[in-house]
C-alpha cells in the first residue's frame, strides 16, 4: 500500500549528488511538496506585512531584475555605498521577521555548524527575465560557515565557477525543494542564476521562483 502514501517526507533524498566541487553538495528534492507548500503560505503571509522590494546596484543605482526580502536578526541589503547586513529594513526601519522554523530545521540538518543562521536572504525571481549575475558571497565574517540555499517554484539554471571571474564554470538545474550547501573550499566560488524556466512548477501562485539562502554572518562567541 506504499503507493497510496503521498511522496513526501517519507521518501526524500537525504544523500547529496556529486557536483564535482568539494564542499558543494546538492540535495535534489530535500524538502517535500507538503512542507514546501506550507512554507510558501508562510512566506506569502510575511510578504503581506513586509513586501519584497527591488534593490538597486551600489553606485550605478541600476535596479536588479529580482525582488528581495530578509528574515532573521540580520538582513542583507544593497545600498548606494555598498552591500551591508542590517537588523532593520531600509524602507521603514522595522526589524525583519523571524526565520521560518522549517528553514532553521534545514540548517540544523545540513550545516554542521555550531551556531544558528542569522540571515535568510529571499530572492524572488518574479519575471521571466529575472537573473543573478556571477558574484561571490563575501560580506559575512563567518566564512567558515556554509551558505545553504533552498529553491521553491520554477526550476532555474544555476552556474558555479571558480575563484576568479573568468574561471571555467559548470551549470546545474535547481528545482523546487532542492537544497544546496556551499561550504568548505567552495564557499567563495563565483556563482549566479542564468535563467528561470517559466512554467516548470505549479507551487507558487502566479509562477516564478523563490530562493532562500541561510547565512551565518558573525563569528559565534566561543
Ligand atoms: C555556490 N542566490 O543569494 S543560491 C545569493 O538562486 C545567491 O537566488 C542564488 O547567489 C539564487 O547570493 C543562488 C545558491 C548559492 C549560494 C551561495 C553560493 C550557491 C553558491 C556560494 C558559493 C558557491
Ligand atoms: Fe550568492
Task: Provide the fold topology.
Blueprint: E1 17-18, E2 24-27, H1 33-49, E3 67-71, E4 75-79, E5 82-86, H2 101-110, E6 119-125, E7 132-135, E8 147-153, E9 156-160, E10 170-174, E11 179-182, E12 191-196, E13 209-215
Antiparallel strand pairs: 1-2, 2-11, 3-6, 4-5, 6-13, 7-12, 8-11, 8-13, 9-10, 9-12
Bound molecules: N-(carboxycarbonyl)-S-(naphthalen-2-ylmethyl)-L-cysteine and fe (iii) ion.
Offer a concise description of the structure.
With 222 residues, the protein is of the alpha+beta class. It contains 2 helices and 13 strands.
Q: Can you describe what's shown?
A:
This protein has 222 residues and is of the alpha+beta class. The chain has one domain (2-215): Jelly Rolls (Sandwich), CATH 2.60.120.590. The chain has helices at 33-49, 101-110, and strands spanning 17-18, 24-27, 67-71, 75-79, 82-86, 119-125, 132-135, 147-153, 156-160, 170-174, 179-182, 191-196, 209-215. Strands 1-2-11-8-13-6-3 form a seven-stranded antiparallel sheet, covered by helices on one side. A four-stranded antiparallel sheet has the order 7-12-9-10, with no helix packed on it. Strands 4-5 form a two-stranded antiparallel ribbon. A hairpin with a 2-residue loop joins strand 4 (75-79) and strand 5 (82-86). The chain is globular. The chain starts with 16 loop residues before the first strand and ends in a 7-residue tail after the last strand. The mean pLDDT is 95. The site of N-(carboxycarbonyl)-S-(naphthalen-2-ylmethyl)-L-cysteine has 17 residues, from strand 6, strand 8, strand 9, strand 11 and strand 12.
Amino acid at each position: 500500500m506504499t503507493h497510496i502514501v503521498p511522496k513526501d517526507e517519507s521518501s526524500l533524498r537525504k544523500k547529496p549528488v556529486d557536483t564535482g566541487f568539494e564542499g558543494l553538495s546538492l540535495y535534489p528534492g530535500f524538502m517535500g511538496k507538503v512542507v514546501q507548500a506550507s512554507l510558501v503560505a508562510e512566506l506569502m503571509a510575511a510578504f503581506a506585512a513586509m513586501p519584497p522590494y527591488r534593490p538597486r546596484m551600489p553606485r550605478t543605482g541600476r535596479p536588479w531584475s529580482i525582488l528581495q526580502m530578509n528574515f532573521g536578526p540580520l538582513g542583507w541589503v544593497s545600498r548606494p555605498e555598498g552591500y551591508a547586513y542590517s537588523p532593520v529594513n531600509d524602507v521603514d526601519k522595522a526589524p525583519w521577521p523571524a526565520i521560518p522554523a522549517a528553514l532553521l530545521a534545514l540548517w540544523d540538518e545540513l550545516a554542521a555548524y555550531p551556531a544558528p543562521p542569522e540571515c535568510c536572504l529571499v530572492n524572488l525571481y518574479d519575471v521571466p527575465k529575472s537573473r543573478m549575475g556571477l558574484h561571490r558571497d563575501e560580506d559575512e565574517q563567518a566564512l567558515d560557515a556554509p551558505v545553504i540555499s533552498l529553491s521553491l517554484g520554477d526550476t532555474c539554471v544555476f552556474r558555479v565557477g571558480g575563484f576568479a571571474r573568468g574561471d571555467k564554470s559548470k551549470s546545474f538545474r535547481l528545482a523546487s525543494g532542492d537544497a544546496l550547501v556551499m561550504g568548505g573550499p567552495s564557499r567563495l566560488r563565483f556563482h549566479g542564476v542564468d535563467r528561470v524556466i517559466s512554467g516548470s512548477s505549479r507551487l507558487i501562485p502566479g509562477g516564478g521562483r523563490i530562493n532562500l539562502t541561510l547565512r551565518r554572518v558573525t563569528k559565534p562567541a566561543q
